[in-house]
């Protein structure tokens, strides 16, 4: 059977199965279970929750073609019994349909109603051509949930269907849950593609198992979410039970107490260690090394600097302990010798002030970013890099907006830069940003040549000789230098 035809049949049998399960819910022990959990009739209908007593699908052979039903994960081969060679996958379970973004049924999550040590609490549809559980988020198929996520630019990620449904019926719609797996990088990609700069709030149970799950999920996905945050339920509670007992307002207080995922990782990996002791600090770096390897290369500097700020340790030691391959990049792309960091900061600050004070900063940013290819990651200084990143992003959205923003009041500009940095889990000191931007536009416009000359001399002094400059030719920093020399009609002897 052609793949397209088989997929169409799979959609058909899954939809039929969902209707069958729904029809079997009334007056069943599954309905009683949902009532005990506080799930309303409206929620049961919206999420199309049903009951699978067993043999509900495999005995309806005329309605459920064997190949399509088996491929869709509804039936499985069994030891022949009563003339049947296939049995139902879902047996004595409350079933929660899983939808794609067209709200088509693509699989099911089944919660057991039978007690027993060998019976798994949850069973998901196996991997099929329609259902890849590591790529799909429960709830994301409902239009109103996607709209709420997009409008709020925030998503709450819970652990299971009943938690999500209870949260939903309490009026919090921007919520999703994984399907029987820990949160995966692919699921985060789905959210990031759907809404860039999305705040992703991971909610875990407050017991030891919840902390282990949080450490694993954060460690596996650090740097992959745009703004990943972590919060915990009180011990002994999950979102479902807590909302039933205490209501929406108390629940929202827990969400408001969230902390950045990186801060959580620092907290658990430094627990019981004294970072002032070399042995403990080295042990801490070993614990941080593995989860930080997954951070995309373009974001690593921000995390290195944040780690340095929060531990009070030097950047060079962190790079050597966590990203040893970055050592050469540090020395070539930014010509950085740790002892001379202040000189680099001096000329980077002067350069960004010059760009901001230009009569048409949009044109300058277009030249540096578009023509020369100078990226924010080419800059060493944390606040300068984030100011430049802000300029590049705003310029990409609206060139006139960049000119107006830079010409506006400095407090508003500083706040805009700090807030945009937060979207990337990057914490900026507003006072430091203000200090970096502290300039008199007219002064910098009238003394442009002198500024360019001082920048050149600062870089030449830092680089020490022509050999160092030649070694670093083609890097972002040298491209900036070349442009400065062109604008100021300078040469190396000035």
Q: How would you summarize what this structure contains?
A:
By secondary structure, this protein is an alpha/beta fold.
Overview of this structure, please?
This protein is an alpha/beta fold and 494 residues long. 54% of the residues lie in helices and 12% in strands. It has 24 helices and twelve strands. The protein has helices at 3-23, 29-36, 41-46, 66-71, 143-152, 161-169, 185-194, 208-221, 239-256, 261-269, 278-292, 300-311, 315-322, 326-333, 341-357, 361-371, 382-397, 399-407, 410-422, 430-437, 441-446, 448-463, 466-471, 476-488, and strands at residues 50-52, 75-81, 84-88, 93-99, 105-112, 122-124, 137-138, 154-157, 175-178, 199-204, 227-232, 259-260.
Detail the topology: elements first, then pairings:
Layout (H helix, E strand, L loop, with lengths): L2 H21 L5 H8 L4 H6 L3 E3 L13 H6 L3 E7 L2 E5 L4 E7 L5 E8 L9 E3 L12 E2 L4 H10 L1 E4 L3 H9 L5 E4 L6 H10 L4 E6 L3 H14 L5 E6 L6 H18 L2 E2 H9 L8 H15 L7 H12 L3 H8 L3 H8 L7 H17 L3 H11 L10 H16 L1 H9 L2 H13 L7 H8 L3 H6 L1 H16 L2 H6 L4 H13 L6
Helix pairs in contact: 6-9, 15-22, 16-17, 17-18, 19-20, 22-24
Query: What does the average pLDDT come to?
Result: 81
Number of strands: 12
Uncertain parts? 328-341, 440-455, 457-476, 484-494
Strand-residue fraction?
5-15%
Number of helices in the DSSP assignment = 24
Features:
single chain, 494 residues, alpha/beta, DNA primase DNAg catalytic core, N-terminal domain, Dna Topoisomerase Vi A Subunit, Chain: A, domain 2, 4-stranded antiparallel beta sheet, elongated, disordered C terminus
